[in-house]
Design goal:
It contains eight helices and twelve strands. It is α+β, with helices and mostly antiparallel strands. The protein has helices at residues 11-21, 31-40, 90-104, 119-128, 166-171, 186-191, 234-245, 262-269; strands at 2-5, 49-53, 56-68, 71-81, 109-115, 131-142, 160-163, 197-203, 206-214, 219-225, 250-257, 273-284.
């Protein structure tokens, strides 16, 4: 097999690699979903690598490049190995061989997320020198099972909800109680904004809260309310407007900081339940 970067690899080859790597998993990827994921997560083909068997990828790691916690960072956008090539430690070998290229690009850290119950993968990352930086919780619910108080429809909050631009989303980052994960960060939102809907809740022309979501995937990337406007139904009003715009029959909220209490309680009251837990891990280059 040949190890090389994906600088000259076309999207169709990458998608076939995804399909082969996850063919025996319960999850299923649509082509446009993968394309959107790569764009939002900052996929950089020159700094992404794979083992090729002929013209097809046997194992791969697709890396996103950007800034995280104000440091130049590479993010594992997707790692996979086709079933017939597993057990050869190819993912670890790809990581080790990529390090010199990442250092040459002045990258300072490598960040990834892994399911907490994926003990095999966690053991590999531990062996490679990764450290857990925080726990992240993921939530999901079918739209018909999301609960709202009866007075939400009557707008108890007194706010006006309307579309906003990325500049207002940026100004509202201070409303958040924790630093968003890579895929929910402001940088990620900026990269994928053409496919996202951004809503602001205004009280007397003041931005009191906002939400950012993908109507096609059902992914609620950010929802936050300014501290002095909380407990007035603004978050619920925003969530209600989000649900009206979704084209899916479900909503998902990924990577909520495990130590957070506010958003956890908000989602719990709306019956948007915990579906999985992840570890955010980092490696210092």
């Amino acid at each position: 097999m040949e190890f090389r970067s994906l600088e000259n690899c076309d999207f169709e080859t990458i998608f076939r690699g995804f399909e082969r790597a996850f063919a025996d998993y319960e999850i299923h990827f649509e082509k446009e979903e993968i394309r959107s994921i790569l764009q939002r997560r900052g996929y950089n083909p020159k700094l992404s690598f794979a083992f090729f068997d002929g013209d097809e990828m046997a194992a791969f790691t697709l890396n996103g490049i950007g800034s995280f916690n104000n440091r130049p960072t590479v993010y594992d956008t997707g790692t996979g190995t086709a079933k017939e090539y597993r057990g050869q430690r190819l993912a670890g070998e790809i990581f080790s061989r990529s390090i010199p290229f990442l250092k040459d690009a002045c990258i300072e850290q490598y960040v990834l997320e892994v399911l907490r119950d994926n003990h095999k993968a966690i053991a590999v990352y531990d062996e490679l020198g990764f450290e857990t930086t925080r726990e992240l919780d993921c939530f999901r619910q079918t739209l018909g099972n999301v609960k709202f108080a009866s007075n939400i429809a009557h707008n108890r909050s007194g706010c006006i909800v309307m579309p906003i631009d990325i500049a207002l989303v940026a100004s509202g980052q201070c409303f958040c109680d924790f630093y968003p994960s890579w895929q929910n960060s402001l940088e990620s939102i900026e990269r994928g904004q053409k496919n996202l809907i951004m809503l602001g809740a205004f009280i007397e022309n003041t931005l009191a809260g906002y939400s950012v979501f993908d109507p096609v995937t059902g992914d609620l990337s950010q929802i936050a309310v300014k501290h002095e406007y909380r407990s007035r139904g603004i978050g619920s009003r925003l969530l209600c407007e989000v649900i009206k715009s979704l084209r899916t029959d479900f909503i998902k909220v990924l990577n909520v900081n495990g130590t957070d209490t506010t958003l956890h309680e908000f989602l719990k009251r709306r019956n948007i339940i915990l579906s999985s837990r992840q570890l955010e891990m980092s490696f210092q280059l």
